[in-house]
Amino acid sequence: MLLIALTGSLATGKSTTARILTAPPHSLPLIDADVIAREVVEPGARAYNAIVKAFGPTTPDLLLPSSPSPTSSSPPSSNTPSDDSKPEPEQQEPESPQSWWAWLLGRFLWPWRRPPKQQQQLRPLNRAALGRRVFASGSEKDLNKLNSIVHPAVRLAMLRRLASLYWQGRHWAVVVDVPLLYESGLDIFAGMVLCVAANEGTQMRRLRGRNPELSEKEARERVGSQMGVGEKVERTEARGKGGGKVVWNEAGEEDLREEVGRVVKGWRREEEGKCWGGGLMRGAWAVLEGWWGRRTWERKKGRKGE
User: Fold this and answer.
1) 145 bridge partner residues
2) Alpha-carbon Rg of the chain, whole angstroms?
3) Cα–Cα distance between 59 and 47 in angstroms, integer?
4) Is the pLDDT of residue 248 over 80?
5) C-alpha span between 101 and 164 (Å, rounded)
6) Which of 25, 165, 217, 228 has the greatest count of CB atoms below 10 A from its CB?
7) In the predicted model, is pLDDT for residue 95 greater than 90?
8) What is the pLDDT of residue 136?
9) Across-strand partners of 175?
10) First to last CA, the chain
């Protein structure tokens, strides 16, 4: 199974690309790092407790006001049941020997899928207040602290979901949506990297259109807090044609759909017909290619700095 890492900067069209990849004719499963990042900081989770301990004393509005119902503080996602009466898919009886592996992985390797009832009464994080704290402080210390809490939890959760999909064996590829792919060091594990890019003017226009409450200064701070588009493009291209592809999203969605379709068609042609053992070898080779691509980029960057 090919692991396609989807990345990009703020307002470049990454979410639109993810929607294209998960819809017919591609219909690929998606592991969204942003969704997982919200799940791992649900009240009662380890990352939630660590964030409250680190930022609570100096951020009075870190937690949202108490809600009369534990399920009314935020809309339920497609991955999280909204009440205790709905069974979790992973706990249903498997229908085939192959699905037993997926069921076991989901059952025993996802222990924090839902917090205990007594922890569901905790107040959820005020994500807006936390964002203002880490982005407007003018220091990378707070942002690095937050990342050091969230990133390990997200990586572990992603690994569990990947293992479950691999054992199911129903798809030729899986898309992992990771905005901070290179920053978190997960790029070396990707078989292919699909980087969605746009110029800075397009980024700012889309971001402020999507979040009108942001001032121009706040929007630039958000964009500047992440690795620049140019650097992500360079790092993706350093992986070579067989390891990464950059898609520029300056036109409409239909043009983006056609370009993504051409890229995926080529990748699928290469992957079809590979056996299970070949998949393991392909995974090991992908890690080596990812590491070599990173080394190539680092040497290129070093030469520029001289």
Assistant:
1) none
2) 20
3) 17
4) yes
5) 7
6) 165
7) no
8) 73
9) 4, 30
10) 41
Cα separation, 282 vs 201, whole angstroms: 39
Q: Which two tokens stand for residue 277?
A: 């053992």
pLDDT of residue 88: 39
Whole-angstrom distance, CA of residue 254 vs CA of residue 302: 39
As a whole number of angstroms, the distance between CA 268 and CA 111 comes to 34
Q: How many residues does the chain have?
A: 306
pTM: 0.72
Give the Cα separation of 231 and 301 in Å (integer).
10
State mean pLDDT over 122-133: 90
Parallel, antiparallel, or unpaired: how do β-strands 173-177 and 2-8 relate?
parallel
Would you call 251 exposed, middle or buried from its count of C-beta atoms within 10 A (0-12, 13-18, 19+)? exposed
Nearest to 38 by CA among 49, 48, 30: 48
pLDDT of residue 113: 47
CB distance 47 to 232 below 8 Å: no
d(CA 116, CA 226): 35
- Contact between 8 and 49 (Cβ < 8 Å): no
Query: How many whole angstroms separate alpha carbon 306 and alpha carbon 297?
Result: 15
